Amino acid sequence: AQSVTQPDIHITVSEGASLELRCNYSYGATPYLFWYVQSPGQGLQLLLKYFSGDTLVQGIKGFEAEFKRSQSSFNLRKPSVHWSDAAEYFCAVGGPNDMRFGAGTRLTVKP
Amino acid sequence: DSGVTQTPKHLITATGQRVTLRCSPRSGDLSVYWYQQSLDQGLQFLIQYYNGEERAKGNILERFSAQQFPDLHSELNLSSLELGDSALYFCASSPGTHRTLDTQYFGPGTRLTVL
């Protein structure tokens, strides 16, 4: 059965610091992997996705994620966080016709 | 702004009642998806419509139903409401049929409170 785990419910980082949000998954085949961001009062926005190929994926807003098959992980990174990055971040895993979301990680950015 | 609109933004109703949530997809998108986001269940896929036809079903209760009209807007009907139905309901749209291969564009959501 497919599942996705985001171990960190809440993370606080200082503005300008680097960020890594963790995502671990369980999936029977090669998964499709996604990161979404949900800003307060907004719907979800796709940051990046991985289907195949290069395991380091570049997304919007300066985010990147790396697929590590051996660790069943797809962690999201950003080298320097901006105050506007404060939001909820969701990892999702699935196949061609199904997708399951993680519980989310709330990011707080300190000035 | 994703281009997906949802009305109303907030809805407060009582148990046992029936409500209708409305979604207008982005111009040109043929698929509409409905999601429920609650504290205990997280974000759950409910149902997908493509060009007026039901395409995929997720964890949608029998008390809930949806449809997509010829102008491609969609409505989610929730009936016999229970306290546990209180949640944020999102609509998303995409150009094609694939829930994962296509990029989905999410609306701002409708917050439903059942008292």
Please explain how this structure is put together:
The complex is a heterodimer of chains A (111) and B (115). Chain A is 0% helix and 55% strand. Chain A is built from no helices and twelve strands. In chain A, strands 2, 5, 6, 10, 11 and 12 form a six-stranded mixed beta sheet that branches. Chain A is globular and about 40 Å long. Chain A starts with a strand and ends with a strand. With 115 residues, chain B is mostly beta strands. Chain B is built from no helices and eleven strands. Chain B has strands at 5-7, 10-13, 19-24, 31-38, 42-50, 53-57, 64-68, 74-78, 87-94, 105-106, 110-114. In chain B, strands 2, 4, 5, 6, 9, 10 and 11 form a seven-stranded mixed beta sheet that branches. In chain B, a hairpin with a 3-residue loop joins strand 4 and strand 5 (42-50). Chain B starts with a strand and ends with a strand. Chains A and B meet through strand 6, strand 10 and strand 11 of A and strand 5 of B.
Terminal CA distance of chain B reads 31 Å
The percentage of residues in β strands of chain B lies in over 45%
Q: Largest sheet of chain A, if any?
A: 6 strands, mixed
Q: Mean pLDDT across all residues of chain A, rounded?
A: 94
Considering residues with a beta carbon less than 8 A from a beta carbon on another chain, report the largest interface and each chain's count.
A-B, 21 and 19 residues
Low-confidence stretches of chain A: none
As a percent range, the share of helical residues of chain A equals: under 10%
Count of discrete alpha- or pi-helical segments spanning 4 or more residues of chain A: 0
What's the alpha carbon Rg of chain B, rounded to whole Å? 13 Å
H/E element string of chain B? EEEEEEEEEEE
Strand tally of chain B? 11
* Head-to-tail CA distance between termini of chain A: 41 Å
Molecular shape of chain A: globular
Principal-axis shape of chain B: globular
Radius of gyration of chain A: 13 Å
